[in-house]
Amino acid sequence: MFFKELNDIKMRSIVILLLLLVSLAVTIALRPYTETMFSQMISEFEKLPKFMKKIIGSPEQLTRLKDDEYYLISQWHGKNLGQFLPLLSLLIAFPIFAKENEKKTIYFLLARKKRKFVFWVKFLTGLFVLLIMTGGLSTMGFVLMKILGYSVSLVHLLPCLISEMVGVTFFFSLFLLFSIISNDQVKPVIAGIVILIGLPLLSLIKSVSFLNPYPYILCVNVLDKGIDWPYTIVLASVSLLLIVSDYLVFKNREF
Amino acid sequence: MGEVISVKNLRKTYSNGVEAVKGINLSVQNQLVHALLGPNGAGKTSTMKSILGFIKFEGDIKVFGKNIDEVRNRISFVPEEKNFYTHLTPKKSIKMCKRLFKNFNEEEAFKLLKYFDIPINKKIGSFSNGMKTSLYISLSLAQEADLYIFDEPTTGLDPIKRSDLLELIRQKIIDGKTVLYSSHIIPEVEKIADYISIMYKGRIIYSGFRDDIKEKFKLLYVPTEISHKIGIDTKNFFAKLIEDEVIVLLSNDHKQWESLSNHEDIEIKDVDLEEFFNTLIRGYNDVF
């Protein structure tokens, strides 16, 4: 059944992987030009319109972009891969059960296999593909920059990897719940998009901003503070709770 | 003969309050085609879904004397919606089934696809409904199971393929397997079933061997006027149906036949499954 699930995910994964590889290639290809581009920006920072200033941030941050390590983490992990990871989790998770429910192909599996088996194979295959893609893409940024002679070290790769993997596990478990309870494929996508849009909005309210896991997944503080262990433990625990909920909901669902 | 499926006091009420099954008992014996016959909404699919553990229910269900989860590898099921993975071709579907189920007979699957004239390299998504049904049935029959459960399996099939399928199902019985078969198509059930349970409004209102119906039942056509004249107590009959000035009574009591056969206005006829089913269902409200 693992191969069946893998086959179901194959096409989606290849398309997403290609898109992210293009994004990685563009990010690295732009590296030689960023320094001149941002130097110019720094000199003309005060002349820039207000909204541009807001987008760029502080001139100090622009100065840091001269550092290859900072560039890799902020531009690849932060601006590209990290931003895509929750969406990637949604794209992998939403059809896993919802498609089978919608097409009624779930009967074919459930009549012949135990629910426990069906759930764990589907869950683990999806998570496996997601973690391989996340890990692979995360590492690839470092490897490619190293090959191209940039000054990057392994020190920050592991914290980024952990943050991204725990983050995608959280999002995957959450989106999988929507997939399990839905009888069609539209609802889990809508619910997922609402979550993806809604979570960053929580950052606007200081008291609940910790509920937004984006800064954690984007490795915002990795360079200065290393990995945020308390947040990692809490997010991993929440993910575990979600996985247990996924299983219980699927086990007790009527088909 | 051993009991393959045992259903005791099965009740199923959906969350919207619909009481689909109202405390039925069902016993499916080994090496028989047991047909669940009933009109739409009778509770056949809910009964099958309960047996297969797809829905929650009240009551007790055992398959091969065990909980369904312990014997899933001995079961093959064809649901009402015969949708298979549309991105696959039949050839790839066979490969997938071979990987998924230890008891899947690849050679038999190819043979059945050829028998049903299904192209093996075309995407299932491009198939007609009949082709999809034939494919699903082929894959299910190619599984060497001990119990085959079919929910309205012939929907979408043309008469020739329908007849072929019924023969294939009969062959399973010859091979020592057991079949639970639901349908609302009477000629189909008449052709295939050994044992019939008629379901209506969530209850089993008749259970017995198919041949017993012809042997044990008669239809009595009694003009209403005569009925009043001789004072027939219709409550004593198996089913009662009031038509234009005639009361149709279904009886399995030889004494009733004999006592009423003397009246020349009363017609007593042999009953086939269709008449039996119609009288039972249409007369249900009068009897129960």
Question: Briefly, what is this?
Answer:
The complex is a heterodimer of chains A (255) and B (288). By secondary structure, chain A is mainly alpha-helical. Chain A contains twelve helices and no strands.
Which key phrases capture this entry?
heterodimer; A: 255 residues; mainly alpha; 12 helices; 80% helix; elongated; B: 288 residues; alpha/beta; Rossmann fold; 2 domains; 6-stranded mixed β-sheet; 4-stranded antiparallel β-sheet; 11 helices
Description:
The complex is a heterodimer of chains A (255) and B (288). Chain A is mainly alpha-helical and 255 residues long. Chain A has one domain (2-252). Helix content of chain A is 80%, strand content 0%. Chain A has twelve helices and no strands. Chain A has helices at residues 2-29, 31-43, 50-56, 59-64, 68-103, 106-112, 115-147, 157-181, 186-202, 214-217, 222-225, 229-252. In chain A, α1 (2-29) runs antiparallel to α5 (68-103) and α5 (68-103) packs parallel to α8 (157-181). Chain A is elongated, with a radius of gyration of 20 Å. Chain A starts with a helix and ends with a helix. Chain B is α/β, with parallel strands linked by helices and 288 residues long. Chain B has two domains: 3-88 and 143-211, Rossmann fold; 217-287, no CATH class. In chain B, the strands form three sheets. Chain B has a six-stranded mixed sheet, sandwiched between helices. Chain B has a four-stranded antiparallel sheet with strand order 11-12-10-13, sandwiched between helices. The two termini of chain B are 32 Å apart. The mean pLDDT of chain B is 91.
